[in-house]
Amino acid sequence: MNTAPFIAVEGPIGAGKTTLASMLSEKLSLSLVKEIVEENPFLDKFYDEKDEWSFQLEMFFLCNRYKQLEDTEKKYLHHHMPVVSDYHIYKNLIFAERTLEGKKLEKYRKIYQLLTEDLPKPNVIIYIRASLPTLLERIKKRGRPFEQEMDKQYLEQLINDYEAAIKQFKESDPPIPVIEINGDQEDFVISEAVFNRIADQVKEYIE
Ligand SMILES: Nc1ncnc2c1ncn2[C@@H]1O[C@H](COP(=O)(O)OP(=O)(O)OP(=O)(O)O)[C@@H](O)[C@H]1O
Ligand SMILES: Nc1nc(=O)c2ncn([C@H]3C[C@H](O)[C@@H](CO)O3)c2[nH]1
């Protein structure tokens, strides 16, 4: 498995994952794997009533990512074609641990374990760290209707969950490099120099 470089861009909601993954894909000729958002039938329901829809939503994300990563292995990695994705499969667990509890969380953990054990895993992670005001500003700018009443506490918790997950990830899997970006200050959209520096760092791992 993973016969080619696989780079995953991660960070909390609105950090700029899709933006950066798309820019890297173009600059470094990497195949792009992007999250399915608009076709998600549970996302707007979830933001309206989290407790009611969380299990359906987490299962939907898990099954979609499972299929996408299965295809990614077959279509690209297996054929030595490098890939950049705008998520790491582990984000399922970061979100599910926050949105589920009790029996549903127990079931979810088991299914997650079963489904993800054979999936290709990224060998480089780019982590965009960003503060609550930056995320809220970007979510507003992007303008998806169902995200506009985003609960600040939920977003703040996810920022902390991501920090904890990345810290744990670095400790438990030190051979996998984590390129960390300060999303409040290092603006790869506005500054070509900032973007080129990130791209150069990534290039080290794909050549
Ligand atoms: N560095 C940046 N500077 C300014 N605006 C940015 C930057 N990065 C992304 N944006 C804008 O912020 C919004 C969110 O970006 P994007 O969709 O890439 O985030 P994301 O992390 O993929 O979000 P999600 O978690 O919802 O999938 C978009 O409108 C994008 O154009
Ligand atoms: N609950 C939950 N679980 C996930 O695995 C997950 N992945 C992404 N999202 C939300 C964030 C953005 O609103 C939108 C696009 O990323 O979808 C998730 N929400």
Automatic annotation (TrEMBL):
CDD domains: dNK. GO terms for molecular function: ATP binding; deoxynucleoside kinase activity. Residues 7-206 form the Deoxynucleoside kinase domain. The keyword ATP-binding applies. It comes from the Bacteria. Coiled coil: none annotated. Keywords: ATP-binding, Kinase, Nucleotide-binding, Transferase. GO terms for cellular component: cytoplasm. ATP binds at residues 11-19, 138-142, 186-188. Belongs to the DCK/DGK family. This is Deoxyguanosine kinase.
